[in-house]
Amino acid sequence: MFHRSERLFLRPPFAEDWKAVLGGIADEGVVRNLSRAPWPYAATDAQSFVAMDIAPKHPRFLITRARDAALIGCIGIDAQGVDTELGYWIARPFWGQGFATEAGRAVLEIAQALGHTRIVASHFLDNPASGKVLSKLGFQPTGRIVERHSCGRGEPAATAEYALDLREMPTVTRVAA
Q1: Which of 75, 85, 87 is nearest to 116 (CA)?
Q2: Domain with 18 in it
Q3: Residue 122: how many other CB atoms lie within 10 Å
Q4: Tens digits of per-residue pLDDT, 77-112?
Q5: Looking at residue 159, which CATH number applies to its domain?
Q6: How far, CA to CA in Å, does 27 sit from each of 30, 58, 109?
Q7: Model pTM above 0.90
Q8: Which end of the chain, N or C, is less packed with Cβ atoms under 10 Å?
């Protein structure tokens, strides 16, 4: 599955993308804000990531700049128990430029087209920028603060939980498979 937004092209990762993934995520400032990525992030981690199967109802994408295919980060939805969870990371050189919000809107459109009705997300409390992205996307705080393990930190850290009812979003049909 592929998706084109104003500035971005979202596409599945391919085996040859592992070096670009490594170059974007192998930054402690990026990894410490993720729950599943280890630190230090090694070449074998990137190779394993791009080789993972992608479930049709839970796609993940490389976020690339449409004009030159530069890797900006990664985004996707994943089954998290009974919920569907949005997760993403943006490489440090691209922070603060609205790419996470733009990619997030695109993935929410895809999730809606795939029939998902509710998406959850969270951010570590010491990463308020991610909370701002979630708010811009329409997520509402659930009021729950929970400890979540961070592989990158090697310990649990407090996270704020959010949820979004996709039935309240306008229906969008420009998803390309």
Answers
A1: 85
A2: 3-168
A3: 26
A4: 999 999 999 999 999 999 999 999 999 999 999 999
A5: 3.40.630.30
A6: 5, 26, 29
A7: yes
A8: C
User: Alpha helices of 37-114 — where are they, by DSSP H?
Assistant: 43-51, 99-113
Contact partners, residue 15, CB within 8 Å, separation at least 6:
47, 50, 51
Please report whether residue 59 resides in a domain: yes
d(CA 89, CA 39): 14
User: 128: part of which helix (H) or strand (E)?
Assistant: helix 128-136
User: Is residue 61 domain-resident?
Assistant: yes
- Residue at 70 is within a domain: yes
Pairing of strands 60-65, 83-90: unpaired
- Cα→Cα distances 83→40, 145, 177, Å: 29, 17, 23
Instruction: Say whether 55 sits in a helix, a strand or coil.
Output: strand
Residue 113 resides in a domain: yes
Question: Which residue reads 């390309």 in tokens?
Answer: 176
Q: Report the number of secondary-structure helices (H) and strands (E) in the chain.
A: 5, 8
| Chain position carrying tokens 């920028």 | 129
Number of compact structural domains in the chain: 1
